[in-house]
């Protein structure tokens, strides 16, 4: 079951303020309630941050404060990265790649963000249009789904998984990644397709 989440209203009890429910719950239930409250707060922060970052994700680094230091990133070709530094490097490489081959001022991305209760993940469906710099190069239409899974303890994003990716309606399926399809589309040679995950 997938529901659209537009706003997430959470009331935080300030220090010195009493909550009517806190005095009536047994300690173990109170701990569970506090954990759920923390999770909801982190979920709200993650969704707000993703909503702010997505429009410029092709050009600007995102806010990394919502990501776990041991984040795992998986793309359809099976390439996997672990760790926030590797994630940052993959985003930096993506920006360099896009800036070299595409017109950043004319390229763009559209997205839809929802919370997937069944998978306890934030789901972002996106469609990117990339306008090449090369003469007569045809635009690339890249579609995909990014699933962001939150760590139940820290509330930070512990996994970023790319699903259902395609370039100009050609699915990205194992063992191929997005760079393999770019080579097919344009005849590019020597693109390091196994260096980073395939998605955006």
TrEMBL record:
Any Pfam family matching the protein: DUF2358
Protein name: SnoaL-like domain-containing protein
Organism annotation: Fragilariopsis cylindrus CCMP1102
Source lineage: Eukaryota, Sar, Stramenopiles, Ochrophyta, Bacillariophyta
């Amino acid at each position: 079951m997938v529901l659209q989440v537009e706003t997430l209203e959470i009331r935080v009890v300030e220090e010195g303020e009493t909550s009517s429910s806190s005095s009536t719950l047994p300690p173990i239930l109170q701990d569970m309630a506090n954990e759920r409250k923390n999770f909801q707060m982190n979920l709200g922060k993650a969704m707000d941050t993703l909503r702010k970052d997505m429009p410029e994700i092709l050009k600007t680094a995102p806010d990394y404060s919502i990501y776990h230091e041991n984040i795992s990133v998986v793309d359809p070709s099976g390439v996997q990265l672990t760790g926030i530094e590797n994630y940052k490097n993959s985003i930096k490489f993506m920006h360099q790649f896009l800036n070299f081959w595409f017109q950043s001022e004319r390229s763009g991305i559209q997205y839809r963000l929802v919370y997937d209760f069944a998978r306890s993940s934030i789901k972002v469906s996106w469609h990117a249009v990339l306008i090449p710099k090369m003469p007569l190069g045809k635009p690339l239409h890249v579609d995909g789904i990014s699933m962001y899974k939150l760590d139940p303890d820290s509330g930070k994003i512990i996994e970023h998984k790319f699903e259902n990716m395609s370039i100009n309606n050609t699915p990205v399926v194992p063992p191929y990644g997005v760079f393999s399809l770019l080579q097919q589309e344009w005849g590019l040679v020597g693109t390091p397709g196994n260096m980073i995950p395939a998605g955006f």
